[in-house]
C-alpha cells in the first residue's frame, strides 16, 4: 500500500476512532512488510532490555527500539534494534531522531527552574504577575461540564501549579464535551501528529500562530478545576513556554537552545527538523487492528515544517544520544562534562515532589507518584526517580538514588498503548541489579 492510498474512501471517521488511535490527529489503514531484522547491538550488559526490544520488533509491534542506559556520568550503553522504518534497510541507532512528545515537558520544567533559581520567577508566584490576563479566571463548576455554569477561581494559578498540572487548565486530548470543543475551536492545540489528509478526520482545527496568542486564548476560557486542587493532565507546560519567554525576555525556543541544548551538548533536539537531518528521522506509526501504519513519514513529516509555535508540552524531536545527555546533566545535579548548566539546588527542587498539599494522583497518569517540574517523581520504594514518557512510545527516567539513567525511543501511537514502557523500566531494573549486585 502506498502512502497516497491513505487518502482513499475506505478511511472513515468511524474506522479511525474504532482503531483506538486517538491523540489529536488520527490513524490510517494498512501495513508494510517488516524487512530485514536488525538485532540488538551493544546488548551484552543489558540482556533483558535487548530481549524485550527484539520481541517487540520481531512481532512487528514497532519498527525499532533504541535505548541508552548509563550510570553516573559514564557514557551510556546503547541497545538498538530495528530499522528507521518498516521495509527500510537503514538501522535505527543512537543518533536517529524521534518525536518525543511529552518528554518535552521535563525540558520545559527545567528551563523554568533555571529562571526560578535566578530570581526571575518564583515557585509560588501567581502567573498573573507575568501574564495579567490570568488574573480573574473562571472555573467550571462541574469537571468537563457546562462552560457557562462557572464560578470564580478561589486562588491564583501559580508557577508551581503549571509545573505540576494542578493549575486547572485543560487539554483537548483529555477533556470531553463543551470545553474540549472550545479548546479546539480556539486553536489551543499544542501538539502535532501528521499533515496527511487523515488529520482532518478528527476536526481538531488549526492551532494559533504564537505562544502569545496561545496564552491569551487559554486565559479567555474557563478552567476545568480550581487551581491547586486536582492533578489534571494539561497544556500547563505549553503555557509555561510563554511565561519563560516573558520572564527571560527571549523567545522560548531561543531560551531552550541557549540555556539547555547548547551547554548540555544536545545538538540534535529541534522543534523543526532541518532538511539536512531528515534522513535520521524515524517514521511514526499508528496502530490499527494490530498493524503498523505510517502516519508521519520523514519525506512528508509535519516536523519538517515550522510549528505554529514552540510547544513546550509536546513539541520536540530528539535522539537517544541527546536525551541521555539531558538525563546525564540532571544526574550530575546540573553539571555535564565539567560544565554547569543548572545549579544543584535547581535540579534538586525541580526533581522533588512539588505537588500542592492535598493533591492526590490516584487514578491519573501519575498514579501513586508525586510530580516535580514537568515530570513524575517516585515516592516510597521509588523515591529518587524523576522522568516522563511521550505519546509515541518514548520514555526516560533518572534514578538519583542508584545513579542510573535510562532512555527508550520508539515510534507508534495507539490508545491504549502497549505495556512497553513499564516492561522497559522493569528490564532496566533487572539488568542494573545484575550489574551492581543488587545494590
Write the layout of secondary structure elements.
Elements: H1 13-18, H2 47-58, E1 64-71, E2 77-82, E3 97-99, H3 104-117, E4 138-140, E5 150-152, H4 159-163, H5 178-185, H6 211-219, H7 236-248, H8 252-264, E6 284-288, E7 291-296, E8 317-319, H9 320-331, E9 335-336, E10 339-340, H10 344-350, E11 370-371, E12 376-377, E13 385-389, E14 395-399, E15 404-409, H11 420-436
Antiparallel strand pairs: 1-2, 1-15, 3-8, 4-5, 6-7, 9-10, 11-12, 12-13, 13-14, 14-15
Pfam family, one: Beta-lactamase
Protein name: Serine hydrolase
Organism: Tsuneonella deserti
Structural account:
By secondary structure, the protein is of the alpha+beta class. It has a single domain, classed as Beta-lactamase (3-Layer(aba) Sandwich), CATH 3.40.710. Helix content is 26%, strand content 14%. The chain contains eleven helices and 15 strands. A seven-stranded antiparallel beta sheet has the order 2-1-15-14-13-12-11, sandwiched between helices. A two-stranded antiparallel sheet has the order 3-8. It has a two-stranded antiparallel ribbon with strand order 4-5. The protein is globular and about 60 Å long. The model is unreliable at 1-39 (pLDDT under 50).
Question: Features of this protein?
Answer:
disordered N terminus, single chain, 7-stranded antiparallel sheet, 439 residues, Beta-lactamase, 15 strands, globular, two-stranded antiparallel sheet, alpha+beta
Amino acid at each position: 500500500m502506498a502512502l497516497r492510498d491513505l487518502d482513499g474512501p475506505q478511511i472513515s471517521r468511524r474506522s479511525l476512532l474504532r482503531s483506538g488511535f486517538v491523540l489529536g490527529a488520527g490513524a490510517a489503514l494498512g501495513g508494510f512488510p517488516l524487512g530485514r531484522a536488525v538485532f540488538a547491538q551493544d546488548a551484552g550488559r543489558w540482556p533483558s532490555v535487548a530481549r524485550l526490544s527484539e520481541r517487540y520488533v520481531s512481532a512487528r509491534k514497532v519498527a525499532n527500539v533504541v535505548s541508552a542506559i548509563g550510570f553516573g556520568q559514564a557514557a551510556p550503553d546503547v541497545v538498538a534494534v530495528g530499522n528507521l522504518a518498516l521495509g527500510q534497510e537503514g538501522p535505527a541507532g543512537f543518533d536517529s531522531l524521534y518525536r518525543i512528545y511529552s518528554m518535552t515537558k521535563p525540558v520545559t520544567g527545567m528551563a523554568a527552574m533555571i529562571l526560578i533559581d535566578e530570581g526571575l520567577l518564583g515557585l509560588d508566584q501567581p502567573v498573573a504577575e507575568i501574564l495579567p490576563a490570568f488574573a480573574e479566571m473562571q472555573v467550571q463548576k462541574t469537571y468537563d461540564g457546562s462552560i457557562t455554569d462557572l464560578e470564580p477561581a478561589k486562588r491564583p494559578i501559580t508557577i508551581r501549579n503549571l509545573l505540576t498540572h494542578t493549575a486547572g487548565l485543560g487539554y483537548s486530548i483529555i477533556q470531553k464535551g463543551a470545553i474540549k470543543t472550545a479548546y479546539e475551536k480556539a486553536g489551543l492545540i499544542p501538539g502535532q501528529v501528521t499533515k496527511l489528509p487523515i488529520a482532518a478526520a478528527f476536526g481538531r482545527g488549526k492551532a494559533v500562530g504564537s505562544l502569545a496568542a496561545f496564552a491569551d486564548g487559554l486565559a479567555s476560557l474557563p478552567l476545568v478545576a480550581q487551581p491547586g486542587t486536582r492533578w489534571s493532565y494539561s497544556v500547563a507546560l505549553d503555557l509555561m513556554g510563554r511565561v519563560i519567554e516573558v520572564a527571560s525576555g527571549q523567545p522560548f525556543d531561543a531560551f531552550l537552545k541557549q540555556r539547555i541544548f547548547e551547554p548540555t551538548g544536545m545538538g540534535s533536539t529541534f522543534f523543526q527538523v532541518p532538511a539536512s537531518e531528515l534522513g535520521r528521522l524515524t517514521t511514526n506509526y499508528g496502530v490499527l487492528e494490530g498493524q503498523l501504519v505510517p502516519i508521519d513519514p520523514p519525506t512528508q513529516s509535519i516536523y519538517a515544517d515550522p510549528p505554529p509555535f514552540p510547544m513546550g508540552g509536546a513539541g520536540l524531536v530528539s535522539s537517544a544520544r541527546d536525551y541521555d545527555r539531558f538525563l546525564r546533566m540532571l544526574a550530575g545535579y546540573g553539571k555535564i562534562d565539567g560544565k554547569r548548566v543548572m545549579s544543584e539546588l535547581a535540579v534538586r527542587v525541580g526533581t522533588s515532589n512539588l505537588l500542592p498539599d492535598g493533591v492526590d494522583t490516584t487514578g491519573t497518569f501519575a498514579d501513586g507518584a508525586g510530580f516535580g517540574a514537568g515530570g513524575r517523581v517516585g515516592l516510597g520504594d521509588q523515591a529518587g526517580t524523576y522522568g516522563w514518557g511521550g505519546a509515541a512510545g518514548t520514555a526516560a527516567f533518572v534514578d538519583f538514588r542508584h545513579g542510573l539513567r535510562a532512555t527508550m525511543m520508539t515510534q507508534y501511537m495507539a490508545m491504549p498503548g502497549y505495556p512497553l514502557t513499564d516492561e522497559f523500566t522493569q528490564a532496566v531494573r533487572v539488568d542494573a541489579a545484575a550489574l551492581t549486585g543488587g545494590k
